[in-house]
Amino acid sequence: METTRQNKIARLLQKEISDIFRSFTQNMQKGILISPTIVRISPDLSVARIYISVFPSNKEKEYLDLVNERSVAIRHELAQRTRHQLRTVPTLTFFLDDSLDYIENIDNLLK
User: Fold this and answer.
1) pLDDT number for residue 37
2) pLDDT at residue 80, rounded to an integer
3) Chain CA centroid to CA 58, Å
4) Contacts with 89 (C-beta within 8 Å, 6 or more apart), sequence order
5) Domain limits of the chain?
6) Helix, strand, or coil (residue 48)
7) 48 near 90, Cβ under 8 Å?
8) pLDDT at residue 29 above 70?
């Protein structure tokens, strides 16, 4: 059961990370969309598990590796943006959100 504080911090992190990814992808190739879909915060607020969705989906693994390589820079940028709201920024771990693929697979099975 997540507390109200965890939910507020998760929403703040999701919004700010979305902005960071938007500026991150503008500097890269055109036609790439990386967006955080779910953010889960540990009870002690020290670890954030961020599930990301990548479009086009054929390059998911490649961009997940790239995001994980740059997680320290993303955390630093996040710290700059949330310095007035958070005392410490949680450690960021990124995972692929495969819920859309799962839904598509179920739809195909039901047809």
Assistant:
1) 93
2) 95
3) 18
4) 75, 78, 79, 82
5) 4-110
6) strand
7) yes
8) no
Q: Return the amino acid letter for 63.
A: Y
Which residue type is seen at 24?
Answer: F
For the whole model, what pTM was predicted? 0.84
Which CATH code of 3.30.70.260, 3.40.50.2300, 2.30.29.30, 3.30.300.20 fits the domain covering 4-110? 3.30.300.20
How open is the CA angle 86-63-99, to the nearest 5 degrees?
Answer: 80
Other residues' Cβ atoms within 10 Å of the Cβ of residue 82 = 16
Query: Residue holding tokens 């955080």?
Result: 36
Rounded to the nearest 10 degrees, the angle between the axes of helix 71-81 and helix 60-69 is 60
Per-residue pLDDT of 35-67, as tens digits, reads 899 999 999 999 999 999 988 778 888 888 988
Residues 39-72 as b/e (b if ≥16 CB within 10 A, e otherwise) read bebeeebeebbbbbbbeeeeebeebbebbeeebe
d(CA 62, CA 71): 14
